[in-house]
Every structure is written in structure tokens, then in C-alpha cells.
Amino acid sequence: MKKNITINLFGELYAIDEDAYELLDNYLNSMKRYFSRQTDGDEITDDIEHRVAELLWEKRKAGMSAVNIETVRGIIATIGNPQDIGSEGSGASPTGGYNKQERSDSAGGEWSERVKDFGRQAEQAFTNVTDDVKKRTRGRKLYRDPEQRMLGGVCAGLATYFGDADIMLVRIITLVSIFLPVPTLIVYLVLWIVVPEARTTEDRLRMQGIDVTPENLNEELLRSGLKSGEQGEKPRRSGCLWALIIVIALPVLAIAMLWLSVFLQFLKIIPEMIF
Amino acid sequence: MNTENSKSQMRKGMLEYCILLLLRQKQAYANEIISRLKEADMIVVEGTLYPLLTRLKNDGLLRYEWQESTQGPPRKYYALTADGQAALDQLDTAWQELARTVSYLSGK
After folding, report:
1. In chain B, N or C: fewer CB atoms in 10 Å?
2. CA A148, CA A155: separation in Å to the nearest integer?
3. Rounded CA separation A192/A158 (Å)
């Protein structure tokens, strides 16, 4: 059973299903936002609203009684999505990879050949990794994720940015890296301050690299709406657990490392004492 | 070989000229412009028209007046201005030059 509401388009009333209304509302809003950057953007969005009204009028004249979601999809397909309009033809993306001229150095000897091979392999591996990273992050923007956060959503946001990686893995790596000669805590704080939080639904879509169309907005709205209903309590609890683990584990580890270094020094002294 | 991109680029370049041509024949509502262009195989996505019409109006080539209608919401009724007529004449010349270029390049 669908909820039905009445909308007023330039003085004309239309009965519209609730899901159809939300899709249409998203559509018009994304048009508004898209054209807000241009001069006379208001006039353009006004023209588009008029066109929507015109199309609905014609459909009603042709016998439609209530506007359903199929109708709205049809209207959106007819008028076009924001990115279909006023988009310059996207230039063909340059093909990745390049051919290197392989020159065999006869005077180099076997050793330098090996070194060159290793160099090539390392370069290939590096290119593979960077290509993979580029692929995973294509079309995405880095945000902090407030939905899946534990502290500031930095790890969650980073994980999502790098192709929906496992967030827990990112967190573990981050924790472990605190004990390495890496300025992890400072970097985390900087990211917390600098990286924006994914607040609107559009942000969430951009974070996942999904095209911002009215339909996708609608789906994301529904999905995050359901989720926040379910997970009201959980993030708090597991967040507390992790905070507890950190608070206990860090001092323990610090003490362990101290002890280890003392022990090693002691090991050095013993031979001197004996011999 | 995929020429869709090139074709769509060519159409984009022509769209302004086509709109002015239409309006030279007679004044029209936006939806009439859309359907005539569709008949002429010119556009698929309607939305591209609105920014363009607004720009042409701002450049002084078009003007419009709102007209109430019993047949639906109020509509903009577009017409060429004198500047629009002049621009159109220039575009006619430009089009003929382009056509000459093409036949030159393919003929010889």
C-alpha cells in the first residue's frame, strides 16, 4: 500500500505517490544545486520545473490519475539528469601504461642485467600498486564517515575511499603504526580536522564514488535511514570497548618495550661480567 | 570505430544555430522548440535546451513573454530579436562556409 500526497505545481494539484514525490523532489533539488553555480541558475531551474508541470499536465490529460514512480522516472529520463545537461563531451581517458624501449646492454655484464631486471620489476610492481589504488579510488572523494565511525570517522572514511576496504583492517594498521617510526597520531588528528564529514546524502554518494542522480540519492536516503534506525546503540558500545583496549594495551606495550630494551642491555653486559 | 562522441560534439555546436533557425520561421514555446528539434533528429536530452535558451536571451538574441494557458502551466513564448536576426544571418554565412569546406575536402 502506498502513501499518497498532493502537490501543487504552479497552481495545479496533482496526486502523487510518496516515493515518486521523494524522487521528484530529489531531482529538482539536484537541478537547483547543479545550476546554482551558473548565472541565471534560478531561471533555468524554474524553466525545468515548468517543463515538469507541463509533462504532468499532458499525462493527466491523457488519462493518468495519480503520479507514480514510473512516471517520474520517465520525466527524469526525458528532461535529463544534471550531469547529462551542459556537460562538455568528456575527452577519452588516456590509456594507462606505456611501452618502454627495452635496450639490451651488451657491455653491461650479467650483474647489471640483474639489477636492471630488478629495477624493472620493482617499477612494474609500483605501477601495479598505484594503478590499483587509482582504480579503487576512482570517482571517490575522501570524507570522514560519521555513520561507521568509532572516534572521528577517519579510518572509516579512509577505508571507504580506498575502494570500500575493510574498516577494521585499516583501524588495526593504524593502531600498529603507532609503534612504528610513523607520526600516526598527528596524522590522525590532522585528518580529523581537515577532512570534511560526510553530512548530506550527496556527500555519502560521492564518498562511495556513486553518480549523483536522483535515483541513487533516493536509494542512499532509504538505506542510511534504515541503518540509523537499526544501529542506534551499537557504535557507542563497540567504540567504548576499543577505547578500553587502547587505554590498557598502550601502557602495557610501552612497558613491555621498555623492559625489552633493558633486558637487551643486560644481555650485553653479562659477557663482560663473566669473561 | 565509435563516432558517437564526435557526432554529439558536432550537434552541440549546431544547437544554437538550429534554435535560431526555428525561431526565424515562427515564434514558439519551449516545448515546441523541443519537439521540432526532435523531429529534426537534433536532441535527445531536453534539459540541454534550458541553459542555452537562457544564455541566448541574456545575449540579447532572444526575447520571451509569459503566456497563460488553459492547457497547462504558464509558458514562455520565444521570439528572435533584431540582434538575433543579425546573428542568424551571420550563422547562415558561417554554415555555408563550413559546407564549402567539407565539399572541398571530400571533392578534391
Report:
1. N
2. 9
3. 11
